[in-house]
Amino acid sequence: MLSTEQIIDAMSEQGLRITDQRKTLARLFGEHSGYLSAKDVYEYMCKKYSGLSFDTVYRNLRVMQELGVLEQVVFEDGMKFKASCSEDHHHHHMICLQCQRTYPIQFCPVHLADAPEHFQVVTHKFEVFGYCKDCQQSASDEEQTASAKTGRA
Ligand SMILES: [Zn+2]
Ligand SMILES: [Zn+2]
Ligand SMILES: [Zn+2]
User: Fold this and answer.
1) Fewer CB atoms inside 10 A, N or C side of the chain?
2) Which free-text remark accompanies the cofactor (predicted)?
3) How far is the CA of 62 from the centre of ligand 2 (A)?
C-alpha cells in the first residue's frame, strides 16, 4: 500500500497542487489500511476543517482516484476508497469482508469474457470478497464459545 509520502509525491508529480486538505487526505489514507466511504472521510475532515462541503471532499477523492493513488471498490453498502497498493502492474483484489485486508491477485479474467463481436473493452473490474485466515479463525472461535455456552446450559 502507498505511504503518505508516496501519495503526496504522486499527486505533486502529476501536477496537483498540494493543499493542506490534500495533505490531510494523503495522511488519512496512508495510515489507514482498510476502506473508507466518502462519508467516513467527510466526517473525519469536518473535525479538522470547519465549513467544509461534502462536494469538496468528494471531488478530492475522485481526483485522487483518477491519479491512481486511491483505489475504489463497490461494497454491498456502497463505494469505498483506500490507498492504492504498491503493485504497479495490472492486478485484481481479494478482499476480506471482516478486516478489509486486501490481497492482490495476478489472475485476470478479462480474456475469458465472451465479449460480443467488435465490442471494444475499455476497462473492467473483478474483485473477490471473503474472509482471510485470521478472520475465519476468530469467527470459528466465536462459534465454539457460543456452542460451549449452549452446551453448559
Ligand atoms: Zn491493488
Ligand atoms: Zn480478515
Ligand atoms: Zn484484469
Assistant:
1) C
2) Binds 1 zinc ion per subunit. Binds 1 Mn(2+) or Fe(2+) ion per subunit.
3) 27
